[in-house]
Specification:
about 375 residues, alpha+beta, Immunoglobulin-like, 9-stranded mixed β-sheet, 5-stranded antiparallel β-sheet, 18 strands, globular, disordered C terminus
Length: about 375
């Protein structure tokens, strides 16, 4: 700054000379930093993308698509049909997979005349076998063959479930002139088995608006929805993985993954926070909010942990062109994707300002059935019940 100040103390003729010189040097450095990179699109061959998450007592469902070039304009990965799959636990081999077609929709980059987004409906689906029983502690192998692609193989081991010893939660409300935001503080205690173990804390929300007539008290259930919450934590286990003391899973560790390297074979208590919904003051006059949260301690296979961790790392880099590239971990040989395993213990936290007189109208045996109902209905168009 001192040099720049002294330059502008010169007479105008010298100012012009200095500015011209500065412009020349800036242009020189810009041009000297350019580097031409040759890119041959023809050398990029599409490969199979396999995604399969195995859980005990669940059917085997395998997503099979093909990779998409960065120069393609596709909004989704095209489904690969008519593939041959072989799935083995080391003793028995299963090849009987049925392709189950589903249709989904997403936003396109185009809009209607009224400014509303245009949805694109696309086909997706999975190869499913409901007869295979996944067992913890076992290794499983997968082989996929499809015309036009190299055969791909993968192997993973299913972890044992680690139970939640205790879960404590309490709410902290933040109010402003228009609404209330609730934060939920949580403490989750569990006992880690001896050995290398990999974990994830997952918080899922299933909510439903209960609207009522303030004159008659008549109610109806509106707009069920569900999503996975981001969590925040000061716990060092997250910092050990991310290189920071504080993690915000909305940016740096959105999957909430960690290892047991700081507490191998010991009981451990993790504290974290997740945000519940906003509630508008005006809406409180005619609506109740029924919210139920599923807090899960997920034991991950080594492969699944590294996959989620590298996805987090790439997201955190912001795809910065000047940062070191982050390669997404894969255990799919000759392809990409992940064959992973997990086992989870879960508990439910019901949050509601619904009066007890209305609770009797909810036809659900327990919190789990209520959660499953809302999550299922959230995939449908909102309607009255």
């Amino acid at each position: 700054m001192k040099i720049r100040a002294s330059i502008f103390m010169f007479k105008s003729e010298k100012n012009i000379s200095v500015l011209a010189f500065s412009f020349f040097m800036s242009t020189f450095f810009i041009l000297s930093c350019q580097k031409v990179l040759e890119f041959d699109e023809d050398e990029i061959e599409p490969m199979l993308v396999v995604n399969c998450m195995l859980q005990p007592d669940s059917s085997v469902s395998i997503s099979l698509t093909r990779s998409v070039s960065a120069l393609e304009t596709a909004l989704f990965f095209p489904v690969v049909k008519n593939a041959s799959l072989s799935f083995s636990n080391g003793y028995d081999i299963s090849t009987d997979f049925a392709f189950v077609t589903e249709f989904d929709s997403l936003y396109s980059n185009y809009y209607n005349y009224d400014g509303s987004p245009i949805f694109v409906v696309y086909e997706r689906g999975n190869y499913v076998n409901s007869q295979i029983k996944i067992e913890p502690g076992r290794k499983y192998q997968l082989k996929v063959s499809a015309e036009g692609f190299d055969d791909v193989t993968a192997e993973t081991e299913i972890p044992f479930m680690v139970g939640i010893d205790k879960l404590d939660t309490f709410s902290v409300k933040e109010n402003d002139n228009f609404s209330t935001m609730n934060e939920r503080k949580a403490s989750l205690k569990f006992t880690d088995p001896v050995g290398d173990n990999f974990y994830r804390i997952k918080v899922e929300n299933a909510s439903m608006t209960v609207s009522f007539d303030p004159q008659t008290g008549e109610i109806s259930y509106l707009n069920p929805y569900s999503y996975t919450n981001y969590i925040t934590s000061n716990d060092p286990v997250f910092g050990y993985n991310t290189g920071t003391d504080i993690i915000d899973t909305g940016s740096g560790n959105r999957f909430g993954v960690f290892t047991d390297q700081l507490f191998d074979g010991k009981q451990y208590d993790i504290e974290f926070t997740y945000t519940t919904d906003y509630q508008n003051y005006e809406a409180q006059k005619t609506e109740f909010f029924l919210q139920i949260y599923r807090v899960s301690l997920v034991s991950l296979s080594r492969d699944y942990y590294y996959y989620l961790k590298t996805v987090d790392d790439q997201t955190s880099s912001g795809y910065d062109l000047f940062s070191d590239p982050v390669l997404i971990y894969t255990n799919i040989k000759n392809g990409t994707g992940i064959l992973g395993g997990s086992a989870e213990d879960k508990q439910y936290v019901l949050l509601s300002d619904l009066p007890n007189s209305y609770r009797a109208l909810l036809p659900f045996a327990n919190d789990e059935s209520l959660f499953d109902f809302i999550k299922k209905e959230s995939g449908k168009r909102p309607k009255y019940y």
